[in-house]
Every structure is written in structure tokens, then in C-alpha cells.
Amino acid sequence: MKKHTVRRAGEIIISFSLALVIFAGLSVGSVNAADDDVQIIETDYSELWSGNITAQAGKTVKWYVNVPEDANLRGCKLTIKIPGLGWGTDTANRDEGHLKLEEGLNFIYEFTPENAEDILFTCWMGSGCHHNYIHVKDEKSVYGVLICGNCKSAPPALHSVGCTLMGGCQASGYGLLVPRSDKSYRFYKFDEEGDKKAFDTLTALRENGISNYLSVKVTGSFSETADSYSFTNQNGEEVNGQYDYDGIVTDISEIEYDGTHEGFEVNAVPVDSENILIEAVPDQQYTGEEIKPEIVITDGDYSLIPRFDYTLEYSDNTEPGTASVKIKGTGAFYSGETEISFEIVSPAQEEPSSEENGDDPQISQTAEADNKESTAPETKELASSGQQPEQKESDKEVTKENEASRSEQQKDEKDTKQASAEASSKPSESGVSQSAANETVSAEKTTVSTGAAYQTQQSSAAGNEAVPKTGDSNILIVLASAIISAFVLFVLYRGRKKRQ
Predict the structure, then answer these.
(1) What are the extents of the domains in the chain?
(2) What's the CA gap between 39 and 31, in Å, rounded?
(3) pLDDT of residue 57
(4) What is the pLDDT of residue 63?
(5) Are 81 and 122 in contact (CB under 8 A)?
(6) Residue 251: which of 171, 90, 137, 335 has the closest Cα?
(7) Alpha carbon of 193 to those of 250, 257, 343, 405: distances in Å?
């Protein structure tokens, strides 16, 4: 029991000691950590005059230098002044204010840099002896589209991974397209290290099946310095003065893919909002091919740019009827989708011309003119006298012939009807259907009108060849009756003989 209690107490003491060690380690390590408002910079004495010391613009800096116990503390390199912040001058002046370092953690200075800059510090003898810089970076995270300098003018949301990995695009260097308030894009070029990070990011995106719309968040130091640059393309040719940039990004710590595009489209306006005006499309004439009329879209005084601000999808746009157009917002400034429609109409039916009817328009017009000239004077004279125009002798003869022809036609029609009635009242002796007989009679009386005269044609001769004549049919019937009668008599005879 006593041993168990002692062992238990020992475990508690060891656990408590380990906790103290961990807490102490965390407390010492936190000197290099920066909270939201203050950044702590701790520089080791061995790197004071040669190391890379950086700070973030816009945050208060507390700078410390750690001097170990075994350091050789002698000479001017143990002194510090900061001419870049107005603490001393860049001259050899022992009487100026400066700080002498001691063993342990030395607090040097507290300041708040506003912009990206390099702050000079020296020993008491100035930069001619020992000096270095505190590099202030304006590091921030910015959303944009990852793109190559070769294609920085392309629609950002449609640019592909495959294009950026081509030789010419790699040679032109990479950068970030950042949206501006005037609905344009600002191109920030990456430094050499940033190009390597961008290439690795693009390669990973392609392996993961990402094909386009490379919206990313880039964390680094952004400079607003605009300039132009040249590069050697994939053919080894020097390209000068063809590519420019609006700023540069250095010290890139991260390129993070934003698959939702939310950071890039944070200020995007839906294309179906009330401020977006889409002009109605007039009716389109049918052509037999796909019809894709221009779509005009405005947002106040700004005219949306196809492929940069929106894309179009047409459907049912070939045949006559109602066609549809789906409008999708794209890029940093417009999002969502809406749909409009327009009509495809067939061309108007045109009346056939006299040439299509086989008439000679020149002859027809001449004949019509001659007819008007010959009848116009007489018509005018008769109209003025109130008399009816007299018929010419030739006209009277034609009229008589027409009347005679009509009488003959009426008589033929009457005979045809009478023959049809008689045929329907009697059974057919020849075995031919009544309808065939009627067709034969009517075919014999077909008349064709040619002006005032009528001609009668026999049009059923060919069709009547397939119909047997009445005489032939009667002979066949008599022969069949005789054969049947003989067969019946034969059967009766054989039956009576068997009974006997």
C-alpha cells in the first residue's frame, strides 16, 4: 500500500514537471509569433549583419536581438543604430545615440512601417563598417486568376490549364489577374520563385482534373510598380517590349486554388438582376442553318463584353419557331444565369411570276395593251351615249356555236344518266360488275373544252381490253352448265344401277 502511494506521487510529479517544460518552451517560442496587431521579430546575433530580416507593413514591430553567452563581445559590431528610422545618422560618430548589446535577449526598437521598404541599420561607425536592412514587405492575400503573361488579355474565367503549361506560356512567366472597380483587370507579375510555385500549382491542378477557371488566392508582397519585361520564348528567341505588368508579387508564400471562385467573384452581379438590361432580339429569317443573333447587354453605362462578362448557349435556333438563348455571367463581375427567346420565321410566300407559269411576259403585256387600245375608244363612246355595245358578227357566230355545243353536251349527259339507270335496274348477264359498266359508259362520253368548240374522245379503250366481251362470257357459262349437268346425270345413273 505504501509503495503504491509513493509510485503514484512520483507519476504526478513527473507529469507536472513535463507540463512546466512544455509551457516554458511555448513561452520562449512565442517571441517570434505575431498577433493581429503586433509582430515580434527575434534575430540571432550570428545573423545580425548578414541574415534576411523581414517585417510586414501595417503592423507594429518589436525587434529583439538574442546574444548567446559564448559570444565574443568586443568591437563596434556590438553596437546598433537605425539611420533608416531616424535613430542616428549613417556616419562614424561615437557621440550619436546607439545601443550596446549584452548577453541575453536585447530589445532594440519598436516601430510601425506603413509601406514596403528597406530600413537601414548600422554599427556606430555607419554603413561603411557594419550594416544590414530590415526588409518590410506589404504581404497580403489577394484573389485573382492565375494566368501567363502571354495570355493576360484573354477572358480570365475561360483560360485553360493546358494553355498555361505550354512552352510559350511558361517562358512568358506567370502572374495574377486581379479585378478592378472599373470592371477591368490588373496584372501582377510573379518573380522567379513565384513562377516556380505557379508551375507546380498548375501541374497539380491538371493532375486533379481542373481544366480552366484558375481562380486562386496568392499570399505575398504586392508592389504597385508598373513596368515591361522581355523573355526568351520556347524557340530560344528574345521577346522584348511586348509584355507589360501593372505590379509585381514577390516573396510568395502560398498559391491556393479557390474552386468555388467566391473570393474572385465576391462583387459579382447576377445577370438576371433589375439593373441588367438585355435588349429584345427581333424576328430572324429562316436560313436552314443555325441562327445566332448578337445579344446586347448593358449595366447602366457599361456594355458587358462577351466571354469576359458572359457566355451564350443557343438552342432550337435552326428551324422556324421559338429559339432560346441562355445567358451565363462569368468572370469577376457577373454571375448567375437567365434566358431569353426570339422567333425564327419562314420567308413570305411569293406569287409565281408569268415566267414560272410558262408565259412570255413580253407577249402577254403586248396582247393586253393591244386589247385595251382596240376596246377602249368604243367603250368610252358607248358609255357617253348610254348604249350597250353591239356584238360583232364574228362574236355572234362564236356565241351560236357555244350554245350548240352546250346543247349537245347536255344531251350526252342525259343519255349517260339514262343508260346508267337501265344498267342498274337489270342484273348483269355477263358477270361484269355494274361499276365497271358505268365507268365504260362514262369514259365514252368524256369531253374536253377548247375555247368555243368541244371534242369527244374515247379514253377507255385501253382499260376495256381487260374486260371480257358479253358473247365470250355467255359461251363459257353454257359450257360450264353442260358439264355440270352431265356430271349430275352420271352420278344418278350409277346410283340406280347399284340398287338394281
Answers:
(1) 33-137, 139-257, 269-345
(2) 9
(3) 87
(4) 97
(5) yes
(6) 137
(7) 8, 18, 56, 109
Burial class (CB in 10 A: 0-12, 13-18, 19+), 136: buried
Are 98 and 81 spatial neighbours (Cβ–Cβ below 8 Å)?
Answer: yes
Q: What pLDDT does residue 473 have?
A: 56
**Assigned CATH for 33-137:** 2.60.40.420
Cell numbers describing residue 469: 366481251
Is-same-fold flag (33-137; 269-345)? yes
- Report whether 188 contacts 144 (CB < 8 A): yes
CA–CA dist 143, 268 (Å, integer)? 13
Mean pLDDT by 10 residues, the chain (500 residues): 46 42 35 65 94 90 93 86 94 89 95 90 95 90 94 92 91 93 94 95 95 95 83 74 82 93 94 96 96 96 96 97 97 96 82 50 49 47 46 49 58 56 45 41 39 39 43 66 77 66
Architecture of domain 269-345: Sandwich (2.60)
Neighbouring C-alpha atoms within 13 Å toward the C-beta of 125:
7
Report how far apart, in Å, the C-alpha atoms of 197 and of each of 167, 200, 251 are: 16, 5, 11
Q: What pLDDT is stored for residue 478 in this prediction?
A: 67
For residue 422, how many other CB atoms are within 10 A of its CB? 9
Rounded CA separation 401/397 (Å):
6
Question: What is the 8-class DSSP label of residue 388?
Answer: P
pLDDT of the residue at 487: 78
C-alpha cell at 172: 512568358
- Tell me the longest C-alpha to C-alpha distance in the chain: 176
Q: Is 267 helix (H, G, I), strand (E, B) or coil?
A: coil
Q: For 279, which DSSP code?
A: P
pTM of the model: 0.51
Rounded-to-integer distance, Cα 255 and Cα 219, Å: 7
Query: Could you give the count of Cα atoms lying within 13 Å of 465 in the half-sphere of its Cβ?
Result: 3
Q: Cα separation of 114 and 271, whole Å? A: 40
Q: Rounded to the nearest 10 degrees, what angle do helices 434-444 and 393-425 cross at?
A: 160
Tell me how long the chain is: 500
| Per-residue confidence (pLDDT) for residue 419, from 0 to 100 | 52
* Phi/psi at 406 (5° precision): -65, -40
Is residue 299 within 8 Å of 275, Cβ to Cβ? yes
